[in-house]
Design a protein that fits this description.
Elements: H1 14-24, E1 26-29, H2 35-51, H3 79-86, H4 89-93, H5 98-108, E2 112-114, E3 119-123, H6 138-141, E4 148-153, E5 164-167, E6 179-180, E7 187-188, E8 197-198, E9 207-211, E10 216-218, E11 228-237, E12 241-243, H7 260-263, E13 283-285
Parallel strand pairs: 12-13
Antiparallel strand pairs: 1-9, 2-11, 3-11, 4-9, 4-11, 5-8, 5-10, 6-7
Length: 293
């Protein structure tokens, strides 16, 4: 599998940066997020995991080693851990970093905003059959097809641990009809055999951003004992339309504790809290999934 093309050399040349995004469907940016904040967030999430016995006893916390049976996202035992994670102001603040906003403004050529819903994954090893399958984000995000997705590892993720991989050029095929599949999201799409997957190892601070019609998936975790932690979020230009569910927290459909009134109660005075309510040009509409079985 070929590595991602790094695009840091184009950060001072927005026209070429936009062209590469149009051509390849993605941009891979090294060290764009603050490493210290990424690693602090990793530490706090792993502390939650250790409290519930998901980490190997006596192991180094930041190594994220586990001998626990895989926990399925959405399971009853998973929900309290994820609620604690979603209640971290630092988790929601990371996507608002100036470095990311500046790149997005160059790409959209206008003022931008981060969609409020931010997603984390705590992916167990030995569970590749239930990993995120090849899919397009637009099925779930809706709104403008120009919305950009961002994926960052929370800590270093060598290729053996299996970060996100992407089918280069797949965004040019338009919307692909999904089929039911195991793993987060519950759907997959057919793959164009003429296109190639690209994947690289990630270091704390790296960011992969891609078009919402680009096909991507979780690469297999080939280690027996390493948890993979990641965060993903979306950006739109202020002239673009988003869908109303993305103004809510991830897993909001379960009700409390996945509501803003519960999650941000300890940091409601922070600029991070309800920042979208202060945006003058926000355009939101109901979400109707196309092609969903």
């Amino acid at each position: 599998m070929k590595p991602f093309t790094e695009s840091n050399d184009l950060l001072d040349n927005p026209p070429l940066l936009r062209k590469r995004l149009r051509d390849d469907g993605y941009l891979f940016l090294k060290g764009i997020l603050p490493k210290d904040e990424v690693l602090d967030l990793r530490r706090r999430i792993l502390e939650f995991c250790r409290e519930v016995g998901w980490l190997r006893p006596g192991s180094d916390l930041m190594a994220g080693l586990t001998d626990h049976a895989p926990i399925l996202e959405g399971a009853e035992v998973w929900r309290p851990v994820y609620a604690k994670l979603q209640a971290l102001e630092a988790f929601h603040r990371l996507k608002l970093h100036e470095n990311v906003r500046r790149v997005m403004e160059d790409l959209f050529q206008e003022s931008v905003f981060a969609l409020p819903m931010t997603i984390a994954r705590i992916a167990f090893p030995r569970d590749n059959e239930r990993a995120t399958q090849p899919h397009q984000d637009w099925l779930y995000v809706g709104g403008s097809t120009e919305i950009l997705s961002c994926w960052a590892s929370l800590g270093d993720v060598p290729e053996a641990v299996g970060g996100l991989k992407l089918l280069k050029g797949s965004h040019k095929a338009g919307f692909l009809r999904p089929r039911p599949a195991p793993g987060p999201g519950g759907h997959a799409v057919a793959l164009d055999p003429t296109l190639e997957w690209v994947q690289s190892g990630y270091y704390a601070g790296d960011l992969l951003l891609f078009k919402s019609l680009a096909v991507h998936a979780a690469a297999d975790n080939h280690t027996p004992d390493v948890l993979r932690l990641s965060v993903d979020f979306r950006y739109a230009g202020e002239s673009h339309t988003i869908t109303e569910p993305w103004l809510k927290p991830h897993f909001h459909w379960l009700g409390d504790p996945f509501s803003w009134d519960v999650l941000d109660k300890d940091w409601r005075d922070s600029p991070t809290a309800r920042y979208w309510e202060r945006l003058p040009h926000l355009k939101a509409k109901p979400h109707e999934r196309l092609g969903k079985d």
